[in-house]
Amino acid sequence: MLLLGAPLLVTVSPAEARPLSDRSFFGEWKNGAWVVGSRLSYTEPGLTAMQNAVKAGDHVMAKRRLLEYFRTRPPISAGTFSHPDWPGAVELTADHIWTLAGGEVYIDTLTVGPAETTVTTDVTSSVTGGRSGFFLMSRYKDAVVANFHSRSKGEGKPTLRLTFTDGSAKTLLPTDDTHIWAGHPGNVYGDKYLLRVADQGKGPFTAATSKAYLQFDLDGLPKVKKAELTLTGKADARKQVMLFGNGESFDEDTRTWNNTVQYTYSWQGDPDGFDWKQPAGADKEYYVQLPRFFFAGPLAAAYQRTGDEKHARALIGIMTDFIRDADAYDSDEGAGSYPNSLSVARRIQNWIPAYEILRKSPSLTPEANAEILKAFNRAGLHLQESTQGAPNWKQTQKVVLLHLAVYFPEFRVAGKWRADALGFLEGQLDDSTYPDGGYWEATDGYARGYASQYVDIALFMRQHGMEFSSATKAKLRKLARFLMDQTFPSGYNAMYGDSDTKDMRSTLRRLGELLGDQELIYVGTSGGSGRKPAHTSSLYPDTRVAVSRSGWHAQDSYLRLNIDRGNHSHPDELAVTVYAHGRPLLPDMGTFTYSQDPRAEWLRKSTEAHNTIEIDNKAQDSKAPGAITHMVTNPVFDRIGAHSEASAGALHERSILALHSGLWLVSDRLKPKSGGAHRYEQNWHFASDAEPSLRSGSKAAATAFGTGANITVVPADPGQVSASLRAGYHAPYMYQVQDAEYASYVKTVTGGATFDTLLLPSTGAADPSVTVERLPVSGATPFEATALNLNLGARGEGVYYKSWNRQASRSFGPYAYDGTMFYTETGAAGQTVVMVRGTSIECDGATLVKSPVEVPDLAVRVGTDGTVRIDGTGLTASTDRARAIAIAAPGATKVVLNGTQVPFTRDGALIYAAAVA
Asked: What is the average per-residue pLDDT within 284-288?
């Protein structure tokens, strides 16, 4: 669970817990008056019997009457669980075994005994869920040790048999397997014949605890229909071992207890149950996510579905254990706030619908009921006062406060809670979004959750006779549009900042339905309903994000450039994310975990882990000045210009030409802030299964996905860069990480430097013939202007020119041009000419395009069928040669201007059909 996950504040310690007295909760009546006020409202119908018991000083009877009241109270909408499903929750949580989020997902429990046993388990769901490894751990705390054969064993090795959708099959051996042992935390066991699994004693682990890990290589394999894991092992006595899917790659030669970030711990058999703290070696999120009760939904649903009291007893027992250990306070400060405000809100979010199910259970005693209600009341008082943390924290706190106010009108302060929550939520969008509608936190994962939660609370409010103002809905619509524009053409997120892979479509659809926005509905249903957005590309200057896209279909092309900042941002200024033909080709590499694991630190805190330039081996400061200076949008192309001061060593400028036909040209210029040599490293990252290679000579990097799209990254100056494929990491999902290679291009020079790079996607295998050759530019160095001759393989040939400043006409190759940017491409379908802020293009002295005045942007496509398509800003139909643009198109038979056919006249090889208004 990434969303709303990073802990920022810890307000109290469970060691400080002491119970809220019955006197403080129920009140005290003496001499015909209340000397201690109750936290309950005795004016509520049905509480008279309880009030009489309190006045009589009989708290035992008061608790009985209170439970009777809630058992018979009519149902009230309870909201929804944060997690209706949680693998292993029903089977394991009752025994105080818990796994954090998706790092390790419970599959099954295996049994071995004194005789060597081979067990085979269906692991299809784990493999098809993207997990290529497995993890073994004791089900019960006992003295029995289980040993499974490792890949080093001569016989009975672990195997993973895969059956593919085409009917073929393959059996794999592990690439790595080992175990870790708490009693020997620095030892490596990767070369051992046996994998040791054991656990005993109190607490989350002892010196006897050992866990086993296996990893398989699934890269490049066809789609899996069925997967079966076979293990051979034995134990001194009957032993049950839990099997989990694991999505984290590891090296058996280096893995130890000390360097393993762990997600699963067991307090099974410990009479004290969970201690609600972070076990040593656990992921950083463990101690905040466990108290959020993500397992409450599955346990409560199991009780509702089966009527089996064991599920109710388990959940009630864990709730009251938490109250005793961590939550019960009798003070105004810190009451109900463990371990932080966000965790309080998430816990109560899960407790309210759980209580709605549990309130009629015979397992709920009057004493337990009273303690749970006290905990609800304490939490509400805390959430009323607390507005801590980032926007998603504050939003969640007040959303849950409103749920408490609605669900518990019996609390005296419920009315104040309602007013406080509504007022805060009405105004929070002002504080959490930029004027252009972009979300303040630099992560699409958190933006998605934030927007989605506004939908949830708006629907909840509507159900209970409340409604957001039109101004709040208008701000929410701007945020929804921002979210839509960031989304890949496939409907999935671009995964920037602290985020992981999510399908955004249901969120966009729900936002569209709530707001009556047909374009949101269209994107949220992949075009199944609604209305196609009128725009493609978008610029968010305040948020400092630009997105170039060719359309809204899954096969369209997409590029995102950011200089964003804010909570959960990465040092990735001027980084790009590229998608084409149904696949992210230059993805953001993800987050993995908030723990201080070296891989996670690299992903989240290094500039090297992103598709930008790292200067002098130092991470950027994402809070530094920067801006997207311009974005030119045209139906054929986009041009984006930006700069950032995030690197102390130099000013980084990046200019991008994005052709909607699926081609990008990236020009970088580095202006050092001091003398001496500087190291500039431009990096391009690929998915873990991309199988990239680096070609000699051109030093082009190309991916080799087994099916579907690929990309070729071609530098303009292969002789001036040191090129290599370097080892990195890819974490498409939180708590899952795989090894991945990336292309690194390094220049170490005194003074400034430039990089010019072609990014060329292909629908199938990458074309090995693609090359880039620099063309000299008259009167200019590459630091002032760049020109490239492009061999695009089967696509054709192209020429690209970009000037970093305004100037008179310059020559490069056969061309002369007086504008800031020019591109031409010739292929089987004809010729394309693109220009920005220019008037005249000549080729070998002949006019290609000539305008009487400067054109802001212009794209001309001359088809082999005689159709000429002209697109540009501010163009009008005109055949007046004194005003119209001359275009070389000797074979023209039809002209289409900005989508509408228009007349044209001819003068030799030139035609006239459009003019700048």
From this structure: 91
